[in-house]
Request: fold
Amino acid sequence: MKQSNLTQIGRARPVCVITTQGDVSADRVILQLNEMNVPVVRFDLADFPQHVHQDATLDRSGWHGTLHAHGREVNLKEIGAIYWWHPRPTGAPDGLQRADADWISRESTVALTGVLGSLDCLHVNHLRNTLAAQNKPQALTVARRCGLAVPPTWIGNHPTGARHFAETSTGYHSRRWKPR
Reply:
């Protein structure tokens, strides 16, 4: 018999809440989890690698290891769910040259999100789906291909193009943005 994602042998499995500090929506979720006596480990991707540490090994049975975040530790195999809620990108230590900081940020993102994203647990707002949904040009294109009505849309950064679009498109504008 398969155990629930949030229980394992009669005890609650930890939930990772990956979001920015002070996010009110995530705070409410954590309050509910606390009321249910579910262990919570909360952090932001931007806390990695400086304040969040991952020690992960892959073998035939999956990922093993631990995740340390802000004084809490969780065994990767015990994680019951991951709640991805608008985390900031991973960071890099201060004082690095731009190219080195960018490299560390890219590699850190792949290392942390790759391991956590591939864990066999419940994923709420899985990061890959969230990122896909936030790509508005792609989402609009897919919607159009699926037969949904998509309003004329302009994306750009040139004022002449914006002005032309605003002047020639009718019936879709409730307000117009004007640069100050």
In short: The mean pLDDT is 86.
